[in-house]
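ingest -> fold -> write
write: protein_1
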Amino acid sequence: MAKLAHIWRHPIKSHGHEAVERASLKPGQGLPMDRVWAVIHASSAVDAAAPVWASCRNFVIGADVAGLGAISAATGVDGRITLRHPSLAAIALDLDDAADQARLLDWSQPLIPAARPKATNVVRLQTHGVFDTDFASISLNNLASLAALSAKAGQMMDMRRFRGNLWIEGLEPWAEHGWPGRQLRIGAASFEVVEPIARCAATTVNPETALADVETPYLLRKHWGHRDFGVYLRVIAAGDIALNDELVLL
């Protein structure tokens, strides 16, 4: 039986990962508190005063700033987000407050290489989260596929590299690659499987060390002929999901 083994959310795009045990999902939305905010940089085309969806290169992301990969996040009952990094002091933020947005920029600036554009603003979209897709997506990943990739890498790869939302156990490796166009159910929620996820340099970074130590896209191309790992889902029927819920293909 395939079941839900892990749920992760990322309140600030590329700035921290957080494990949760359950979530309530709605059509037209991603995982609650996932990629609600994002940091734009000096070369971004996004208007901080009226932000709209834009491609990921308009934001400060792990593919460009490896140090971001080691940030963890914890959201309190008051909505404040505490960020931790092995080389920085922990910081607690209310990102609806302009002063705390400025504190985030100052806190993260030491992680950004001098050659990269400086972080300038924190933005929140009014439609859906700041996802890599132009629709409200939830990413699903397969622990058996991770094990197969880890075997080629010569080390067990931490799932947090992939910044995925849902991780499933009990499947065959790469079973998920045959699902685009199909529907599935996890817990009380139903989903459409939209497309595979092409992986970038962000997945080369070890979240414990913030160092790039596995050539993930290269290994995917070499051994499987593509850069895909995981699939994007769209919620089509509302419902709650929780750890150990069964995944059923419809």
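write: protein_2
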Amino acid sequence: MRGTKRGLLVHKWGPQLEILSHTSTGAFLSHCGWNSVLESLSCGVPMIGWPLAAEQAYNVKMLVEEMGVAVELTRTVETVISGEQVKKVIEIVMEQEGKGKEMKEKANEIAAHLREAITEKGKEKGSLVRAMDDLVRAILSPKAK
């Protein structure tokens, strides 16, 4: 592909987590389904949102307005998107200063919190590990039977 000015298009499955965790990944064009959101944030990668259906529009709204880790390109598959629009959102999210830098910092901060939630160091456990322990204890307790 070198020298052709064309990117690689994967028609079927691609190893999304491996791609997102690669150091050269600067942003993720996502439909903003919750699994994709969590995978992107766990890798500290800001998003370009293109919600298509279901809860995705609500997710992108939260990611943009409340969390500050995404920009929205458009909504639904019927929208006509210009190359200029795509260029604009890519430039925003990839900025080394300003909004792009802030988005990357916030995404990295969220990634650190997500890692903390699943850590287990001796008796010190992350919130997700503690919640799973509590769930298992509740299920196995004599009162639950």
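write: annotation protein_2
The helical segments are 16-21, 34-42, 56-67, 83-94, 98-117, 127-140.
The beta strands are 28-30, 47-49, 70-72, 120-121, 124-125.
pipeline exit 0
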